Amino acid sequence: MKLKPIYALAISAMMLSSCKEDFIERPSLSGTTTGNYYNNAEEVRAATSTLYSGLPWRNYESRAQDAIGDVMSGNMFTYTDVDYLNFTVSSASERIGATWGAFYKIIGYANVMIKTFEEKKANGGGAAYLDPAIAECHFIRGTVYFYIARTWGAAPIITDPGETALSGNFNIPRYLQKDVMRFALEELQMAEAGLPESDVAGRLTKYSAKGMMAKLYLYNKDYANAKAKAEEVINSGKYSLVADYNGMFTKMSMNNNPESLFSIQHQLAQDPWGTGNIKNPDRGASALRTAEADAWEMYVPSLDLLNEYEFGDLRRKWSVMEHGWTKPEWKPQRVNAPKYNAFMANGFKYDTLQPTEDGGSLSPTRSNIAKYFAGPGKSFGGDAVLGQNSGNNVVLLRYADILLIYAEATLGGAASTTDPKALQAVNAVRARAGLAPRTSLTLDQILHERRVEFAFEGDYWYDIQRQGFAKAKAMIQKQNRGSVGNPTYITNFTEDKMYLPIPAGEIVQDPELGKDPVPYYN
């Protein structure tokens, strides 16, 4: 699906301008009004399509998602975001500021749309097309607050930035994490009630909301509800595991496939619109840099993650490039590089012995990330790439997650389970990976499955975090976070590192953010 962007159609109504606090966004008081717009489903869906696009999500999904979800969790090695690698992150971190800004901008978009659509409905607008749009906004707002609660713990909750701005009271406190989580859940419940059973590929449905609720319930260790919601998604029959695992992340033709419940929608486009996926250069091996595709391998697989894969796990070659990894259809060429061109003439082969200037690869872990790397460009046998941009969606919730949530929720707090449905769920994921089925399940086995299944998707840090401090510390201290020949282990992990600090600039503007959190609910 290509969700119609808002730019020409409705941006005047949705344009957001900064108030005193960066995280408070309010609508412009001029421009398109509800009286002369949002009169049909096309106009409304054009507006909500922005919530799915790379435009508001960009500063999170570009690098911050990697730094928080995979570098901090021990899945990636990097020379750039070393503070996430060694847990010395400060409130001045660029990634923290980018994530905070992106999340509260998305919330600002959703807030404005909810208010606008509700006003339109109150003035006689059609509920048939406005209610599903309002539900989309609740899903996005709930999902983002779920991310916020897991990233910072206690945090502000903003629902009406216009009222806040007009009141002049910018002393917004942090609210207790449990209240932010409760707010997120209530938003997802409203989304579930208002979203349709089905829609065009890429649009949210009730089952997107049920799936995200299952994930939130699991985080809260509410196993009964996590299991129930995951089971509703499974029993719907609307989703399935796709055979081409690598293609989910590297082929535009597989955007919004039957495994995707919620994805950030990308289109192949140049800046400044921010609609392209820009993970390509940060992950791609430098040997694959061409005139069409940038590649500078900012993030590479960690040695610890490589050690996590079971022998024969197909996800390893689907996610990681290592010595001997081949892609015969990729035939990159470069100007004035005869040795390189000769080496690549019969197809790309990942080689750690060949000199790097002649096509070899020598990353710090002797590996590179294949997931979300679209290739060297269309002229060289890959998907189309425009410099840093590819057209691949970024998947934030997929069916494999639902299956593993169901299994873990069935296990609950028990030491192990042989429940047939839980085994069926896990073994479906393992079968695609070419692995033998389990006959019983433990929590550590499920966490192992989650780690390798969702590697480089920005999720594993939250899996570690939700184990609680004692187990999180034990998991992290076992990890080799170094490079080849330089093993490195964490010895400074303390409980205050379970969540990231509030950006320093935000506390300067709003000192309440530096104080203890308060209840949101009476």
TrEMBL record:
Positions of the RagB/SusD domain? 306-515
Tell me yes or no: is Signal among this UniProt entry's keywords: yes
SusD-like N-terminal domain residues are 76-218
Q: Where is it localised?
A: Cell outer membrane
- Write down a Pfam family by its short name: SusD_RagB
Q: Which UniProt keywords apply?
A: Cell outer membrane, Membrane, Signal
**The keyword Cytoplasm appears for this protein:** no
Tell me the domain of life. Bacteria
In which broad location class does this protein mainly occur, judging by the first location in its UniProt entry? membrane
Coiled coil stretches, renumbered: none
| Gene Ontology CC: one annotated term | cell outer membrane
Q: Which SUPFAM superfamilies match?
A: TPR-like
Q: Which InterPro entries match?
A: SusD-like_N (IPR033985), SusD_RagB_dom (IPR012944), TPR-like_helical_dom_sf (IPR011990)
Q: Which family does it belong to?
A: Belongs to the SusD family.
UniProt name for this protein: Putative outer membrane starch-binding protein
Native organism: Larkinella arboricola
Taxonomic lineage per UniProt? Bacteria, Pseudomonadati, Bacteroidota, Cytophagia, Cytophagales
